[in-house]
Amino acid sequence: MSITVRVPAKVNVQLAVGAPRPDGYHDLANVFLAVGLYDTVTATPADGLRLTVTGPDAAQVPLDGSNLAARAALALAERAGRTADVHLHIAKDIPVAGGMAGGSADAAAALVACDALWGLATPREVLLSICADLGSDVPFSLVGEAALGTGRGEKLEPLEVGGTFHWVFAAADGGLSTPAVYREFDRLCEGREVPAPTASPALLAALREGDPHALAATVDNDLQPAALSLNPALAATLAAGTEAGALAALVSGSGPTTAFLAEDAPAAARIAEALTASGTCRSARVAASPAPGATVVGQDPEPDRDTVPARADQG
Ligand code: ATP
């Protein structure tokens, strides 16, 4: 028996960040949009917890207990009073440390896959609370589509989206650590009053109406100056996408992936081609949004384990 779950990446169309709280976290108004760029996680019974990863960025994914997918499997097993005897195989297509919540996506996918494999039928609210314990972005990876996250981003309210938005995502060389970007945000804000974060009514209306021009006029990422300060080369990528006709160009979450909103699918293809040719990014690819959250896409009663390509194992 094996279960395969597909899970999307995200872009933050608004990321309003408040002042640091006493616990070190920041209050957020975080408008998440799931995009059709996916990892898949396959769970198969095994002796103990095993982890394998394939994909272009696989070498950057930790295979030890810090891997969020492994932590998700352990958290679910502990709650169910059983051992996490599972081989998790991650087919990784979401850029690593790119500001697209790839690790969070794998955690949500692993939870759904293990829940199905172990026949637990864990209530959705319980899965969501395990997700929130694992990280601020993990609950959104479970639900997908579009949502407003408040608190440190983990309190979610679903949002209506009235159409399909077409994006281009440009991967940058190297990654940016999310905590480092928040530290830089705090440094840049020193001595300034940071307003309490609130969702923009105009942006929520643009999503509801499915209007890319209105969305382009309202996208906003408070972490962008911090990401640009740590990786100034991103400014050239943003400029290249704007020159190629993007309606909006922004850093995705904590970066360094950059996101470009296009008028329609053909425009997105043209922008991706121009960005690739510009030499200002590692690669550029199109993706549409919204996209569903972590979903079971395959149940194989008797998989041939040898067909799973493995980079490395964690015993
Ligand atoms: P976010 O957008 O949520 O801030 P991110 O997209 O910037 O996250 P991730 O790809 O989630 O970043 O990776 C952040 C770090 O998490 C990586 O550098 C890696 O060390 C660690 N990590 C743990 N588990 C995973 C996983 N399954 N996939 C990728 N990275 C993981």
Order of helical and strand elements: EEEHEHHHEEEHHHEHHEEHEE
- What is the rounded Rg? 19 Å
The count of DSSP E runs of length 2 or more, i.e. the number of strands, is 12
Structural class: alpha+beta
Number of domain modules: 2
- Count helical runs: 10
Give the CA-CA distance, first to last residue: 20 Å
CATH topology of the largest domain: the name is Ribosomal Protein S5, domain 2
CATH architecture label of the largest domain: 2-Layer Sandwich
Low-pLDDT windows of residues:
306-315
How much β-strand is present in the residues? Answer: 25-35%
Mean pLDDT: 93
The CATH first-level class of the largest domain comes to Alpha Beta
Helix content: 25-40%
The largest sheet, given as strand count, sense and whether it forms a barrel, is: 8 strands, mixed
The gross shape turns out to be globular
Bound molecules: adenosine-5'-triphosphate
Biased composition (Basic and acidic residues): 302-315
Function: Catalyzes the phosphorylation of the position 2 hydroxy group of 4-diphosphocytidyl-2C-methyl-D-erythritol.
Active site: 10, 137
Region (Disordered): 286-315
How does this structure look, described?
The structure is a single chain. The two termini are 20 Å apart. A hairpin with a 5-residue loop joins β1 and β2 (26-45). The longest helix is centred in the middle third of the chain and has 16 residues, at 102-117. α1 packs parallel to α2, α5 packs across α8 (224-230) and α6 (201-209) runs antiparallel to α7. The chain has helices at residues 68-80, 102-117, 124-134, 138-143, 178-189, 201-209, 212-218, 224-230, 234-243, 265-278, and strands at 2-20, 26-45, 49-54, 86-91, 146-150, 155-158, 165-171, 220-221, 248-251, 258-262, 283-289, 295-300. Helix content is 33%, strand content 29%. The strands form 2 sheets. Strands 1, 2, 3, 4, 5, 6, 8 and 12 form an 8-stranded mixed sheet that branches. A 4-stranded antiparallel sheet has the order 9-10-7-11, with helices on both faces. The relative contact order is 0.21. The chain folds into 2 domains: 2-158, Ribosomal Protein S5, domain 2 (2-Layer Sandwich), CATH 3.30.230; 165-289, 2-Layer Sandwich (Alpha-Beta Plaits), CATH 3.30.70. It is an alpha+beta fold and 315 residues long. It binds adenosine-5'-triphosphate. Adenosine-5'-triphosphate is lined by residues 61-62, 66-69, 90, 96-104, 106, 137, 175, 178, 253-254.
